[in-house]
Amino acid sequence: MANEQRKTLIVGSGCFGLSTARALLERGWTDVIVIDRATTLPAPDGTSNDLNRIVRTSYSDPFYSKLASDAIKAWKNRDEWHDAYHESGVVVLGSPDSEYKHKAYLHDLEMGLRVEPLDNQTALRQVFPPEAAIANFENITGYLNRDGGWANAGQGVYLLMNQVRALGGKIHAGKAAVELIQQGESLKTTGVRCSDGSVFEADLVVLATGPWTGSAFPDLPIGKIYQATGQCVAMVQLTPEEADAYRDCPVVLDVTSCFYIFPPTDQNLMKMGVHTGYTRSVGEKKISTPRTITSDPETGLLIPKANVRDIRDGLRKVYPTLVEKPFVATRMCWYNESFDGDWVIGYHPKSEKSLMFATAGSGHAYKFLPSDEQIIGRLVADAIEGKLSPEVATKFAVDRTPNNGDDFRLKMVREELDLNQLCTPEDLL
């Protein structure tokens, strides 16, 4: 059967799933269906749906640096992405001896991007608006990359959904996949069964289920290459006058403390977070499972008290005059985190090319949403069609041995979520 005639079912309508759908449709695939567990889309608790996501080329791995540079060029296509992308610039901070920061700077410089070293307080002060009160940044250096910023995550997903539909793709909400239909004892996959009893048959099933991959398919032999982890964020509400003072600030990313903060949105909300790694083990197999506003409406948005303190400490080290403002919202963003930070894109080796993985965004995939053929979507489509180079195929292989990752990612310690330590309203003041 020609690839273009294969009936393809993509499970998950986030960054990986929708990008893959668009890429396949643009290549002439004619029967592409996307299903998602959420009853409304974009999913309220989806990994790819949020106020904002950092769009940066600043990686210690040149593969992602180049890929992100291509994505940023596409983000600027306003006909497709409207005003979802905001080129505020990204300040990358770190200790003077940070290897990640040094490598990222060299990669950005080699690509000819608009970068400026920030080796002292005077240089740092000049990249922020004069009205913004910033910290002294003691014992820290960095650089500004003007070719980057942030994207309105929910808006980008919504636009991509419309693009998929315009190309003939079908998207079904409220279809939570709970079982892969497979032939006998083999892993040859012929479809998916959903929680409501409905069945979607397919020649090819693409799992783009993000942090729900492990819990949705607990019997799937996948090895120990990824795990659902929760990352903690918080928001402060600025007054219009305060927001005007900080609106033209760059995104700030500290690769040493793992703290990051965005400029205010049009609703004057300033979001910030610390790259943590909470797990929530569920069931006999202790599979880490997301805990969100959908599964736990009353407390699903709460984060641990310790992270409230960490985030406030990070805010103090960037914008000290805002540190006394209360946090008006928190959220635990769940990602499918690989143990080396590389994505998982490839066929299950025992599935006879009927089961494809497109997951493990590891908290840094959203920026690759757009391109002429979708950056991530292009990679997944190439993997499906057997066109990935051997080097890239090995980098993303389902059965690979995880490498050591980078010094930024190694700082993230996975810790089991203790529900008795969640924040209270008083902790947010």
Describe the structure in your own words.
The chain has 429 residues and is α/β, with parallel strands linked by helices. It has a single domain, classed as FAD/NAD(P)-binding domain (3-Layer(bba) Sandwich), CATH 3.50.50.60. Helices cover 24% and strands 25% of the residues. The protein contains 11 helices and 23 strands. It has helices spanning 15-26, 62-75, 78-81, 99-110, 121-126, 153-166, 213-216, 240-246, 305-316, 375-384, 390-395; strands spanning 8-11, 32-35, 53-55, 85-86, 90-94, 115-118, 141-145, 149-151, 170-172, 177-182, 189-194, 199-201, 204-207, 226-237, 251-254, 259-261, 269-279, 281-282, 287-288, 327-338, 344-347, 355-359, 415-416. Strands 5, 6, 7, 14, 15, 16, 17, 20 and 23 form a 9-stranded mixed beta sheet that branches. The protein has a 6-stranded mixed beta sheet with strand order 9-2-1-13-22-21, covered by helices on one side. A hairpin with a 7-residue loop joins strand 16 (259-261) and strand 17. Helix 1 runs parallel beside helix 6 and helix 1 (15-26) crosses helix 10 (375-384). The longest helix is centred in the first third of the chain and has 14 residues, at 62-75. It is globular. Residues 8-370 form the FAD dependent oxidoreductase domain.
